[in-house]
Design goal:
Blueprint lengths: L2 H14 L4 E3 L2 E3 L9 H20 L4 E7 L10 E8 L8 E8 L4 E7 L1 H5 L8 E7 L5 H8 L1 H6 L19 H13 L8 H11 L5 E4 L3 H7 L12 H5 L2 E4 L2 H11 L4 E7 L3 E6 L15 E4 L3
Antiparallel strand pairs: 1-2, 3-4, 3-7, 4-5, 5-6, 7-10, 8-9, 10-11, 11-12
Helix pairs in contact: 1-8, 4-6, 6-7
């Protein structure tokens, strides 16, 4: 297979997987992250402290939080992995509850992690992005349900797929769990063994639009079925015939929250090895972590 085709597919795999490590000519989903040097560790901790400080100064009790990872620019996406951050989390203020794939047990699990730990999965230590959607402080149902272990686990799928179809129950990816948590809370869905069916039905009925991965190449679609973390058997035939996957991603979750949660506010953060940029609003920070006129800049060299 031509090398550009292989690399394009690896980008797609990494784009959809929250624990993936991809290198030219190689793919290993469960490789540990690269060790950070002292300066990189300092940058990450200062970045995490900046994010947490801004969360603390808000009136919100719950926020959607998303981090960048492998370069997703081929698909016009910046973020790959989302979770729910809670002021009153018993693990510590603003810890993140999320789905991740447990490589040792080879199954998805619910995992709680502080902001700094959450950021360690960002991929490139020289530049990183984080997006936070502050939900109205009256959104008590989402806070309560997210902290309810029984309900959170009730939405946990048995099988993981990085490109899980957003409206099927055969597989689940990390972002799909977040979308379904929103459905249970905002749709006030009753507890049931068919809770995921109910949640996906509510999402579809209320206009939720998953992200579209326009693969644009039948060879890539064929090869995707040969990789252990990607599956095609849950996707509609109409999508497959058009070389498309529809998958829950942070951008689709944020768009849904913007439309459904009156008063939701978005703050985007980024860092290089020299600065942190804080941007408020739904328009993205410029590529390369370049600040706009109204953005706050924190100099890391000072």
């Amino acid at each position: 297979m031509a090398r550009p085709v292989v690399l394009a597919l690896l980008v797609m795999v990494c784009a959809l997987g929250q624990a993936a490590r991809c290198h030219a000519g190689q793919f290993n989903y469960c490789d540990p992250p690269s060790e950070l040097d002292a300066r990189q560790q300092d940058t990450l901790l200062r970045f995490a402290a900046t994010v947490k400080s801004r969360l603390e100064s808000s009136s919100a009790r719950v926020a959607l939080i998303s981090r960048s990872g492998i370069d997703l620019s081929r698909f016009d996406m910046r973020y790959s992995h989302a979770g729910i951050s809670l002021r009153a989390h018993p693990n510590g203020p603003w810890s993140v509850r999320q789905l991740y794939f447990d490589c040792d047990e080879r199954r998805p699990r619910i995992f709680d992690q502080g902001i700094a730990g959450f950021l360690e999965g960002s991929g490139d230590p020289s530049i990183g992005y984080l997006s936070v959607v502050l939900l109205p402080d009256t959104d008590n149902d989402l806070e309560r349900i997210t902290l309810d272990n029984r309900r959170a686990l009730g939405l946990l799928g048995a099988s993981y797929s990085a490109n899980a179809y957003a409206f099927a129950q055969r597989y689940q990816n990390c972002n799909q769990w977040v979308a379904e948590m929103l459905a249970v809370a905002w749709g006030q869905l009753s507890d049931s063994v068919q809770l995921r069916v109910q949640a996906q039905g509510w999402l579809a009925d209320t206009g939720y639009q998953p992200a579209r991965f326009e693969v644009g190449d039948p060879v890539l679609m064929w090869v995707s079925g040969m990789l252990p973390w990607l599956h095609r058997d849950d996707h509609p035939q109409d999508d497959l015939s058009q070389w498309r996957f529809r998958v829950s991603m942070p951008e689709s979750i944020e768009s849904f929250a913007r439309a459904r949660a009156a008063g939701a506010r978005r703050i985007e953060f980024c860092h290089t090895d020299r600065r942190i940029v804080i941007h408020e609003g739904w328009e993205p920070i410029a590529q390369g972590c370049k600040p706009g006129e109204s953005d706050q800049v924190i100099d890391l060299d000072s």
